């Protein structure tokens, strides 16, 4: 009796969503004819949207939807129903309908034509407002309980308690801690019986031991090959653009594949345009043998290598700038070939959650229906966005996943008749 009395004093909602980021807001605005509350721990919504794309909001990518599946590591197939239910084209059309024109860059990244993240966030907030969604800020959730008798969720947020038939957890991951992403959703999910796949930073730069390219910061290489080695075994190979910074390795080929890289791994970098190291070695040796009095540095420059990088390779190879090809001994030739096509670096660390764009790991997708985003463990419990064990490449794929999973959850909530709390 006492429990029923306490429950009767709680404010009741049909749906409560925890998190006012892209996934949470998109879920909220997709729900029809229900009393919806969004609880946000920050004093303002969408902090991660506002910093996306350096404040310009790269909100999706214009590549073919079929190609999206390959942009999420090993869990891309889980997202297929969500992405096909609400595709990148649907996203672009949605914002256009809401008065936001878009621009598409050569790399297929899509931005609002204003290049202002605030415009994207305002659309989501205005849509929620038109749907009469209630949003409470500075409402950090402390505890969630599931009442099996009433089949309702009781949520404690600061000095308030709320109850709902349906709960959507859209708290994000642990990346960019300053935005409020501190992994709260993992705690809630675990307490509700869900498995959490170990989390780690993703879309992050990689730090290596004895980094020798600090003075080459800003130099980049296009479409080069990097192989990943662990315990003397080749476990992966990546192809893409590499960037030297003052302190670490970056660029899409590093950022997008940081999800696979661990401390102690070895990266072997092929700075040439030859995918096959042996092919490069044979061609380069042939050129050296046939070039005679040609300056070795000039020969390397013909590989379209940046001048400062070539200077550094000569220094690392202990070869003087005036060395001609006919004077290059076998040991030096082998060293130069190794530096150019098989440069080995030992991974010291991956950029932490303060610099990582997304989180690897999260709520196990094996316990979530890919067709609805609903928990397989507790009815009417949904997970959307980065709190799930999904992480996409850089280029608008993660925000698109947030929109798509939010829309799919909203559609599922709309299509199912859920019992009301306390209904006998």
TrEMBL record:
Domain called RsdA/BaiN/AoA(So)-like Rossmann fold-like: residue spans: 14-411
Cofactor(s) it depends on: FAD
Cited Gene3D superfamilies: FAD/NAD(P)-binding domain (3.50.50.60), HI0933 insert domain-like (1.10.8.260), Translation factors (2.40.30.10)
RsdA/BaiN/AoA(So)-like insert domain span: 201-358
Keywords for this protein: FAD, Flavoprotein
Coiled-coil segments: none
The keyword Flavoprotein is assigned to this record: yes
Listed SUPFAM superfamilies: FAD/NAD(P)-binding domain, HI0933 insert domain-like
Protein name: Rossmann fold flavoprotein
Taxonomic lineage from the root: Bacteria, Bacillati, Bacillota, Tissierellia, Sedimentibacter
